[in-house]
Amino acid sequence: MSSQIDHLLNETRHFAPSREFVAQAVAGADLYDRAKVDREGFWAEQARELLHWHKPFTEVLDWSNPPFAQWFADGELNVSYNCLDRHVEAGNGDRVALLWEGEPGDDRRVTYAELTDEVKRLANVLEGLGIGHGDRVAIYMPMIPEAVAAMLAVARVGAIHSVVFGGFSADSLRARIDDAGARLVITADGGWRKGKVSPLKPAVDQALADRGSGPQESVEHVIVVKRGENEVAWVEGRDLWWHDVVPAASADHTAQPFPAENPLFILYTSGTTGKPKGILHTSGGYLTQATFTNRVVHDIHPETDVYWCTADIGWITGHSYVTYGPLANGATQVLYEGTPETPHPGRWWEVIEKYGVSVFYTAPTAIRSFMKLGRQIPQSFDLSSVRVLGSVGEPINPEAWVWYRDVIGEDRAPIVDTWWQTETGAIMISALPGVTVTKPGAAQVAVPGISVDVVDEAGEHVGTGNGGLLVITEPWPSMLRGIWGDPERFVETYWEKFADKGFYFAGDGARLDEDGDVWLMGRVDDVMNVSGHRLSTAEIESSLVAHEATAEAAVVGASDETTGQAVVAFVILKESFLKAHTPDGLAAQLRSWVGEQIGPIARPRDIYIVSELPKTRSGKIMRRLLRDVAEGREVGDTTTLADTAVMSVISAQVK
Ligand code: PRX
Fold first, then answer.
1. Are residues 519 and 566 in the same domain?
2. Residues whose CB falls within 8 Å of the CB of residue 410, separated by 6 or more in sequence, listed in order
3. AMP-binding enzyme C-terminal domain location, by residue (predicted)?
4. Boundary (domain end) residue, out of 525, 550, 565
5. Which parts are annotated binding residues for Mg(2+)?
6. Same-domain pairing of 482 and 333
7. Is residue 312 lining ligand 1, measured as CB closer than 6 Å?
């Protein structure tokens, strides 16, 4: 980390927007001025201009009971209507909403009229199954148009979706279904990944099997899309094929208005403890900020742009910048099912060429892997359609930034590095492509209407040229409204640290440069960021100790050239297992164990079998020292260790 920071501090290149770009940009510098004069009035204006309200709101922000905010509370809207019907009613039904590309190369174009029709039918199916206002629906799907339709149909009937990333295991799915008390699961037989069908329905079956009494009894039905054509088991009475029920349902469905604060979705994310948090988002404020930021940060011109965000709908980026933001804006977007390198390493650039993608939004980890493969691969495709590039999910190092701009943007397309979180719901810090002079590696400035700061431990502004903790100083429309079922954890996790100031603590370190621009420096807590995915050290540790061979485990995020950070585990094995197995064999077993328990993304890159862990006198594991070992650095200050000799033992064992 420290070498990366030194590197960032030496970065001085600047890129001003071109005159041509400025002339056509959706957003100008005046947005900042308007927001500065009247922040709440500014958001009210965006909400009114960008969305259709069945019942207009009169109140903007209710912050009388912090940190529980209400935005536009007396207004009523239907999120699905805003993403679909109104575009059709405005005469844009023939506009393509989704340019879907399957991994094997099959494709489908879905217009706004067709997507609206499908969502209306599914909404009727849901209501026929008794799903309505406030019910929870789990969605566990590949990247196919039906996944987007499922989210919108759940929203349409006022229910709450909980999308679970298809790469998560049956156990993770079960935990999320149980925590939310989902009544319905929408899934597919399987989807294409890395050249073969990756099954999904079997994981749903497993997650719903062997259940006793209690909340797990909640699931009544499973709707299954046929995509992978893989064999699936069937539970009569519970399971329904999408192709049996959806086409047979009526395509008439009137979207009912719901209050702005109606819950829209729960999305689980990793925190500093073993148990994932169900982040709760509501409707009006969330949709306002997702739509606004997609429009101004990505500079979306719905009539002409072809937008592509490569995120899976299982993550917040897929919620805000695949489903809600772009569809509310009436944009045309690419939806790609598979992995970037299948069947060949130029697959993404082929997709850009095929559809003429003009706005492209992806993660630094992907950029770095393409960089490694060499520029000749993207350069053998026609990327001349690209005019805006976005980055999200982790800090982007200046080398990757400059490569992205040079090679993918052909030294013409501006880059927006967007900082935000599952909790913030939408982009918070980012350049505006027609306004900001960009700097490689910096997210730079809060978007209009958002107030952030970098402060010290006491909550005091650090001043330009200094580092500290990133905070959000004013409530924002798409802020999380809580943690599902755990209001105390919500207050504790985000608001307690700077309670006297009323700041939201993001968990990220940041630095202000001489111009006052923000540079993100990575997490300051026990949350790791691997390939732009958030993982908790505690969650992986509890998975490791759940294995019969493990006595103790400590997990750290070590910097990795491609994935940003990588999971590195230090494990103490039980004597009895060490006698009967080789350490290498056990390490391999543990790797796949974590993959099965949580999901392949959580599998440690390295597992070191050690005989001790560094602990303070009060028994707290000093992960900082383990990180030094994992990153091959000299081990730092060990004076607070109960046994100062332990680090040399560990270092020797790791070698
Ligand atoms: O550490 C920050 C990092 O990702 C975390 C949020 O992760 P998640 O909720 O999974 O959402 C990812 C997609 C929005 C943040 O706390 N992060 C996200 N974007 C950036 C970033 N770090 C630096 N620069 C970014 N642009």
1. no
2. 383, 384, 386
3. 539-620
4. 525
5. 545, 547
6. no
7. no
Q: Per the annotation, where are the binding residues for CoA?
A: 193-196, 317, 531
- On whether the pTM is more than 0.90, the answer is yes
If you take atom 13 of ligand 1, which residue's CA is the nearest one? 393
Ligand 1 pocket: which of 265, 268, 368, 419 to mutate (most atoms within 8 A of CB): 419
DSSP 108-172: EEEEHHHHHHHHHHHHHHHHHTT--TT-EEEEE--SSHHHHHHHHHHHHTT-EEEE--TTS-HHH
Give the C-alpha separation, 306 to 320, whole Å. Answer: 17
DSSP state of 88: I
State in Å: Cα 394 to ligand 1 middle.
5
Protein residue with its CA nearest to atom 15 in ligand 1: 421
Q: Is 55 helix (H, G, I), strand (E, B) or coil?
A: strand
Using the atom order of ligand 1, give the atom closest to the CA of residue 423. 9
438 lines ligand 1 (CB under 6 A): no
Task: Tell me the C-alpha distance between 411 and 395, whole Å.
Answer: 21
Total domains in the fold of the chain: 3
Categorize the per-residue pLDDT at 618 as very low, low, confident or very high, splitting at 50, 70 and 90.
confident
Instruction: Indicate whether residue 419 lines ligand 1 (CB < 6 A).
Output: yes
Of 525, 543, 559, the domain-final residue:
525
Question: Quick one: 471 and 423 in the same domain?
Answer: no
565 and 609 both lie in a single domain: yes
The alpha carbon of 234 and the centre of ligand 1 are apart by a number of angstroms equal to 39
70-117 tens-digit pLDDT: 999 999 999 999 999 999 999 999 999 999 999 999 999 999 999 999
CATH, residue 443: 3.40.50.12780
- Tell me, using a 6 A CB cutoff, whether residue 392 lines ligand 1: yes
Instruction: Identify the domain containing residue 540 by its residue range.
Output: 531-654
Question: What average pLDDT does the segment 44-55 reach?
Answer: 98
Compute the average pLDDT of residues 136-163. 98
Report pLDDT for 8. Answer: 64
Residues 176-235 pLDDT 10s: 999 999 999 999 999 999 999 999 999 999 999 966 545 457 999 999 999 999 999 999
According to the model, what pLDDT value does residue 2 have? 46
- 357 and 376 in a single domain? The answer is yes
- pLDDT tens per residue, range 247-264: 999 999 999 999 999 999
**Measured at the alpha carbon of residue 162, what is the angle toward residues 159 and 163, in degrees to the nearest 5?**
130
Place of tokens 């935005």: 71
Atom number in ligand 1 closest to CA 527: 1
Which residue's CA is the nearest one to ligand 1's atom 11?
A: 421
Ligand 1: does its nearest atom lie under 6 Å from the Cβ of 520? yes
Per the CB < 8 A criterion, the answer to whether 133 and 172 are in contact is: no
Determine the distance separating the centroid of ligand 1 and the alpha carbon of 534, expressed in angstroms. 8
Query: Residue 9 has what pLDDT?
Result: 62
Q: Are residues 379 and 239 in the same domain?
A: yes
Q: Is pLDDT above 90 for 642?
A: no
Please tell me the distance from the alpha carbon of residue 274 to that of residue 539, in angstroms, as a whole number.
4
CA distance 155 to 133: 9
Annotated binding residues for ATP, written as ranges, equal 393-395, 417-422, 508, 523, 534
506 Cβ inside 6 Å of ligand 1: yes
> Would the CB of 418 count as within 6 Å of ligand 1?
yes
Residues 119-137 pLDDT 10s: 999 999 999 999 999 999 9
Over residues 153-182, the mean pLDDT reads 96
Q: What is the CATH number of the domain that holds 483?
A: 2.30.38.10
Domain co-membership, 538 together with 519 = no
Mean model confidence pLDDT for the chain: 95
Ligand 1 close to Cβ of residue 320 (< 6 A): no
The stretch 484-505 carries a mean pLDDT of 96
| CATH code, 626 | 3.30.300.30
